[in-house]
Design goal:
Layout lengths: L5 E9 L2 E10 L4 E6 L8 H11 L3 E11 L5 E4 L1 H18 L12 H5 L5 E4 L4 H51 L2 H18 L5 H15 L2 H20 L4 H21 L3 H21 L4
Parallel strand pairs: 3-4
Antiparallel strand pairs: 1-2, 2-4, 5-6
Helix pairs in contact: 4-7, 4-9, 5-6, 7-8, 8-9
Length: about 290
């Protein structure tokens, strides 16, 4: 079981570059990946997405890879055609306004021309695949740390969920033990009412018929069986499934229906208190399950 929250940050040196990788995640119903890369490494984005999607089931995951080159050999090129066009245009403006209106007058400064967009361009001949070899060791280390962080938190969540599930098991056992006592309780209630009205002339057959009718209407045996089945399925998911989050949420909904039905049929204070305890434990499980992958 893994938590959907996690964090990792790793730095590394590779030849002429300093590399940092940061991965963080929070809860999300599905897998939502956000990859931030230097522009020249954009060809690697799909590869990184594929690796992450194979390792992570769900959650909102942000990964940022930063590269700072300690040595760079950029290639600077000049668009002479654009430079001449800018020069002629600037010269025309200067002549029309009068050169004496410009500080220094005289010839147009070269910096004014080369500072125009497109005159000079900076480019680097970078092979993304070769750069991946530099990035991969730091990336792998960050991903391993990130997955370990999620797994560690996942174990804490699992322990807490199993504790809350044990509380639900106790409630289900209480309902099962109480079920056989219901007939006696109903008989006491009905017999008491008849005796209030008829004294010692109570018809026992009538009492038994009323008890049977009450048992048919208020029995919770089927709900108990289904509730225990749901709790067993929940425990199996927690113990065996590597990513039980979505299924736990579904099972909680089904278990909640049974608990609500038991509560609506209940006629006794003792059962009512356990219904409240069961609802509280189930709600805690549902909330905690939202953190599970």
């Amino acid at each position: 079981m893994n938590s959907m929250t996690g964090y990792a940050f790793k730095e590394g040196l590779a030849e002429s570059a300093q590399i940092s990788v940061e991965i963080k995640s929070v809860n999300n119903r599905f897998l939502d990946l956000s990859v931030s890369l230097p522009q020249f490494l954009n060809p690697l984005e799909q590869r990184i997405r594929k690796i992450l999607s194979e390792k992570i089931g769900r959650g909102k995951v942000d990964i940022a890879i930063r590269v700072r080159e300690t040595e760079s050999h950029p290639k600077v090129t000049a668009d002479l055609g654009a430079a001449k066009a800018y020069f002629e245009a600037l010269k025309s403006v200067a002549d029309s306004l009068g050169r004496e209106n410009f500080s220094g007058g005289g010839a147009l400064p070269l910096s004014l021309v080369v500072g125009q967009e497109g005159v000079l361009s900076l480019s680097r001949d970078i092979d993304a695949e070769e750069y991946w070899k530099k990035i991969q060791p730091t990336f792998d280390a960050a991903l391993a740390s990130f997955l370990s962080d999620r797994a560690r938190e996942g174990q804490n969540l699992k322990a807490d969920l199993l504790k809350k599930l044990s509380a639900l098991d106790e409630c289900a056992d209480f309902f099962a033990k109480w079920q056989p006592q219901m007939e006696g309780k109903f008989r006491e209630q009905i017999l008491g009412r008849f005796e209030e009205l008829l004294g010692d002339k109570v018809d026992q057959n009538r009492v038994m018929a009323e008890v049977a009718a009450m048992m048919v209407k208020y029995t919770i045996n089927e709900e108990i069986v289904r509730l225990k089945s749901h709790l067993s399925a929940m425990r199996k998911e927690m113990e065996e499934s590597p990513a039980p989050g979505k299924r736990l949420d579904f099972i909680c909904q089904e278990a909640g229906r049974e608990i609500n039905t038991i509560g609506s049929k209940n006629q006794f204070v003792e059962v009512g208190q356990k219904v409240i305890d069961a609802k509280d434990a189930l709600e805690n499980i549902r909330e905690q399950a939202k953190n599970v992958e």
